Amino acid sequence: DTGVSQDPRHKITKRGQNVTFRCDPISEHNRLYWYRQTLGQGPEFLTYFQNEAQLEKSRLLSDRFSAERPKGSFSTLEIQRTEQGDSAMYLCASSSFGRGYTFGSGTRLTVV
Amino acid sequence: GIQVEQSPPDLILQEGANSTLRCNFSDSVNNLQWFHQNPWGQLINLFYIPSGTKQNGRLSATTVATERYSLLYISSSQTTDSGVYFCAVAGGNEKLTFGTGTRLTIIP
Fold first, then answer.
1. B94 touches chain A (CB under 8 A)
2. Coil, strand or helix: which one is A109?
3. How many Cα atoms sit within 13 Å of A104 on the Cβ side?
4. In whole angstroms, what is the distance from residue A40 CA to residue B84 CA?
């Protein structure tokens, strides 16, 4: 069990640029989740996958956000035309049914 | 969706003291977890405890699912226990909803 890996750890980008984050879940976990956390708040759900199928998307996930999980393995979260309000910690987690979530270290995005 | 309330929002204690953190939730749950968020932002899973009692060293947790609350106990607190503690719950869809956290500060 190597845990959940996220890359990069930090990303600074200019407003209007596109960014992509990667998450590698625990290999035997079939569910993968993306959350966003802003300062002083608890993490908020964005979207989740069961294997390669994206089963739910939050209303927080505007059209500028897209997530994929090809072949049910790693996942990517892309933000197009970034805005300052996108600055946050983006957290990935994985789980299998009846077991708890394991979170990665997160990607901290700063939009300048 | 399920509502999660944590109390107290902030707690300041001397090293060596004991503490109890509370989590109330609004509906039946299939999953309840306690996390400690470290200064670098990573969420460390402390307990997966949808019901019953568990202990791990100086930490223990109890969930009374029928009364919709959970308690996290920290005994003989150390400065390394400082940080934010989150309770998170999920219903049938397995989607975790987080509370707003308890910020714990342990003073040497």
1. yes
2. strand
3. 28
4. 10
- Rounded CA separation B35/B86 (Å): 5
Tell me the shortest Cα–Cα distance from B18 to chain A, in angstroms: 24
**How far is residue B11's CA from residue B22's CA, in Å, rounded to a whole number?**
12
- pLDDT by 10s per residue, chain B, length 108: 899 999 999 999 999 999 999 999 999 999 999 999 988 888 999 999 999 999 999 999 999 999 999 999 999 999 999 999 999 999 887 889 999 999 999 999
Nearest CA in chain B to A58: B95
**Amino acid letter for position A72:** G
Contact of B86 with A42, CB cutoff 8 Å: yes
- What are the tokens at A6? 């996220």
